Amino acid sequence: DIVMTQTPLSLPVTPGEPASISCRSSQSLLDSHDGSPHLDWYLQKTGQSPQLLIYRSSYRASGVPDRFSGSGSATDFTLKISRVEAEDVGVYYCLQRMAFPYTFGQGTKLEIK
Amino acid sequence: QVQLVESGGGVVQPGRSLRLSCAASGFIFSSYGMHWVRQAPGRGLEWVAFIWYDGTNKYYGDSVKGRFTISRDNSKDILYLHMNNLKAADTGVYYCARVSRQWLLTGWFDPWGQGTRVTVSS
């Protein structure tokens, strides 16, 4: 199984400051046909279902503010928030869709300082 | 609008069975692959199972393989998760999620349902 390792697990951030979450996979997540990464980011706010933030490593989902951005290579991926706002609080998860069984990272809990 | 509504959760004794449902609306259900994802209390997300849009192929997480069965009724727009020989470790909230685009065999999860809670306890 592909192991997804997220860091940090806890991320206290001052509003207006940037934040960065790393996700590392134990195998390449690049599609063999088109080279696109099978890596997505989800945010789960307290008491809510997860919601899609970023797909294919770097594409923002509809309605996601442009302060969110994603990047990455074959095994190393990063979610960045340029200026954290109070509404960004929650747990962020990366997900690999390269191979079954799909696997999530452990989650990064972002909180406001 | 696109909507997924899970139901069927509850309290069940270890070793017993339970069937979860996910009712879909607002889109052509038979064109989309569907997933089940679960979350144990205070824990992270765990992918459980996936079924192709036409039901011909199914995939399972290691911890549920041989005990859980994913299925769908495209005439009723309902996704199911049949859970047998339940264990305490199966306790959690179960979400259904749709593959993002029609006919894709892999795709990001969007949207998700609100979840249904399963508690396995004697």
| Multimerization state | heterodimer
Structural class of chain A: mainly beta
Order of helices and strands of chain A: EEEEEEEEEEE
Low-confidence runs of chain B: none
Mean pLDDT of chain A comes to 97
Strand content of chain A: over 45%
Gyration radius of chain A, to the nearest Å? 13 Å
Q: Biggest interface, and residues per chain?
A: A-B, 24 and 24 residues
Question: What do you see in this structure?
Answer:
- The complex is a heterodimer of chains A (113) and B (122).
- Chain A has strands spanning 4-7, 10-13, 19-25, 39-44, 51-55, 59-60, 68-72, 76-81, 90-96, 103-104, 108-112.
- Chain A is an all-beta fold and 113 residues long.
- Chain A contains no helices and 11 strands.
- In chain A, strands 2, 4, 5, 6, 9, 10 and 11 form a 7-stranded mixed β-sheet that branches.
- In chain A, strand 5 (51-55) and strand 6 (59-60) form a beta hairpin.
- In chain A, 38% of the residues are buried.
- With 122 residues, chain B is mainly beta.
- Chain B is 0% helix and 50% strand.
- In chain B, strands 2, 4, 5, 6, 9, 10 and 11 form a 7-stranded mixed β-sheet that branches.
- In chain B, strand 5 (45-51) and strand 6 form a beta hairpin.
- Chain A binds chain B through residues 1, 38, 40, 42, 44, 49-52, 55-56, 61, 91, 93, 95, 97, 100-107, and chain B through 35, 37, 44-47, 50, 59-62, 95, 97, 100, 106-115.
Which key features would you list for this structure?
heterodimer; A: 113 residues; mainly beta; 7-stranded mixed β-sheet; 4-stranded antiparallel β-sheet; 0% helix; globular; B: 122 residues; 11 strands
SSE order and pairing:
The complex is a heterodimer of chains A (113) and B (122).
Chain A lengths: L3 E4 L2 E4 L5 E7 L13 E6 L6 E5 L3 E2 L7 E5 L3 E6 L8 E7 L6 E2 L3 E5 L1
Parallel strand pairs in A: 2-11
Antiparallel strand pairs in A: 1-3, 3-8, 4-5, 4-9, 5-6, 7-8, 9-10, 9-11
Chain B lengths: L2 E5 L2 E3 L5 E8 L8 E6 L5 E7 L6 E3 L7 E6 L4 E6 L8 E8 L9 E4 L3 E5 L2
Parallel strand pairs in B: 2-11
Antiparallel strand pairs in B: 1-3, 3-8, 4-5, 4-9, 5-6, 7-8, 9-10, 9-11
